[in-house]
Design goal:
Layout lengths: L7 H9 L3 E5 L1 H5 L19 H4 L2 H6 L1 H17 L4 H12 L2 E5 L5 H5 L3 E4 L8 E2 L32 E2 L11 H12 L3 E5 L11 H7 L3 E5 L12 E3 L3 H11 L1
Parallel strand pairs: 1-2, 1-6, 2-3, 6-7, 7-8
Antiparallel strand pairs: 4-5
Length: about 250
């Protein structure tokens, strides 16, 4: 860890802030081997357009196909493990008031031991009924890697088809999850943005919201992004390299 040069200004902000919000995107999980949304279109699924599978129209047109794709994605996540960045956030959260809001639909923060305030784009592990909206965890059969169609289970409450818990294109964000993310940003002294490209709104607007309420913003990302100009400090490193070094330096 000592070989990683942590910016002194970032260390000072992390030490002096009483309330910290960490906003994470796809780059947070990339070093766990989880492909980004479009990069996940491989093998059997390479002939499908992601937006056709992750949309209300797609779900209505072919529920078995959509449920099969999401079950496949869920299985890929289950086979992945939290990386050093996830584990570092857990250690940091144990010693500071640190709230995590994420765009990611995986459960790697939780499996690392962190508490997540908000899954703004939903979760692969929180399916809900397409009819009554009730969230439940129905028993599902293991996905066959050679089959692209799997019938969704039935809702235990009303008998309707279950649907993935991830937010689809064209859908509104879960109001409770979005409100929770806004609240932690508005109350933070420091907002750390990790591994998000800053192109998906309204999540991409949270750093600007943080600046407007007087918080400092630190971006941890190996490349320039659409929210870089909102950051007070831009640290060009990855989640699994930068976060452990930062936490070790505190």
């Amino acid at each position: 860890m000592n070989s990683v040069d942590v910016p002194s200004a970032v260390i000072e902000l992390a030490r002096s802030s009483s309330r910290i919000a960490v906003l994470t995107g796809a780059g947070m999980s990339a070093e766990s081997g989880i492909s980004t949304f479009r990069d996940a279109q491989t093998g059997l699924w390479s002939r499908f357009e992601p937006a056709d599978l992750a949309s209300p129209d797609g779900g209505a047109r072919d529920r078995d196909l959509v449920w099969g794709w999401y079950q496949w994605r869920t299985e890929l996540v289950r086979r992945s493990q939290p990386n050093a960045g996830h584990l570092a956030l857990t250690r940091w959260q144990a010693r500071a008031h640190l709230d995590i809001a994420t765009q990611n639909v995986d459960d790697l923060h939780e499996r690392a031991g962190s508490t997540v305030i908000s899954h703004v784009h939903g979760s692969l592990f929180d399916p809900r009924c397409s009819e009554c909206g009730v969230h439940s965890q129905p028993e599902t059969e293991p996905i066959d890697e050679h089959t692209d169609r799997t019938a969704p289970p039935l809702c235990p409450h009303c008998g309707g088809d279950m649907r993935p818990g991830a937010v689809w294109f064209g859908e509104s964000l879960p109001e409770d999850q979005w409100r929770a993310a806004v609240e932690v940003v508005e109350s933070a002294d420091l907002v750390v943005v990790v591994g998000t490209s800053g192109v998906v709104f309204p999540f991409a607007g949270l750093p600007a919201m943080a600046r407007s309420t007087g918080a400092s913003v630190v971006e941890i990302n190996p490349v320039e992004t659409d929210i870089s100009d909102m950051a007070d400090h831009r640290w060009r490193t990855t989640a699994a390299v930068g976060l452990p070094a930062l936490v070790a330096a505190l």
